[in-house]
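Schema walk-through. Below, the input block comes first and the output block second. Nothing else is stored per chain. Lengths vary across the set, and this one has 322 residues.
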Amino acid sequence: MRSAEDTEATAGLDPETLLGDDHETFTGVTSGERAGPLAVVAAPFAGRQTVVAAAADRLGVEAVSLSADRASVPQVPAEGPVVVDGCHHLYRRAVGGFDRLDEFLNRLAAAEGPVVTGWNRYAWTYLAAVRGLDRAFADRVDVGPVAAEAIAEVVLSRYGDLPSFAADESMSRERRVRFRRRRISVGGYGLEVPVPTLRPPAGEVAPADVVFERLAAVTEGNVGAATAIWTSARSEEMRPSDVVGAGTDPTLDREEAFCLRLVLAKGRVARSELEAVIGEGVDRVVGRLVRAGLLVHEGAFVTLEPAALPTATAAADRRPIL
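--- output ---
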């Protein structure tokens, strides 16, 4: 079963690579030098579970993992360390939907030992805007973006036979791009935007380097999405123009945009939860997003299609709904 919380894509990457400049804060909390609590925030597939698992290992405890079908409020020992992943599953868009979240945050406030929690970035942004979630945490670290070199290392390590790489004429002089996410304030709300850093080409750039730079740019340095796109696009010869997000980019109505944003914020959502918000038209709404290649039906649950994450994000961002 595919899952938006799968760590396979980031296997082999250490927290320092995934966290970049935020690794110092992560080390401070997991070593006891900083009090926390700490929020590990990441987009789907970016490697949050890998970072949270590393925190549990360093603190010598077993992480509690919440999910779409397992989201009871976890116990928080007063003195011992605690690590909880998937905390975004503690809320629902419904009357009383914040009760479990509030109970969990109250328990965190009473904790005296180290606390590390894992959150979906889209859910975090929403909850920070409507519930002031960010004020409950002394520290926050963001997973990614990961550099093209690290993405290439992960992707190429999975395949014994490598493709040949060729240049696109239209991209032969394309500038190489890296992204960093920056937090900005708009109308009193905290938002995150990808900020590109352009690097002019220095001499002749190998086609393979351009392919992986484009893979990093398309996915904003998201290792899981990059791996999925590579798997779907991989052929005997790879060009930069082959690297595109999967799925079609539809014009969404309000219900479709809302549904897509709900799944982006959790990665995996029960159909019953979507129906409670969207109503009787849930199958039509989900069906269109599935046909567009953005979502996947898995029994009673709806999940994101990893290779379509850039397409899904762009479609949802064009129809912002808080």
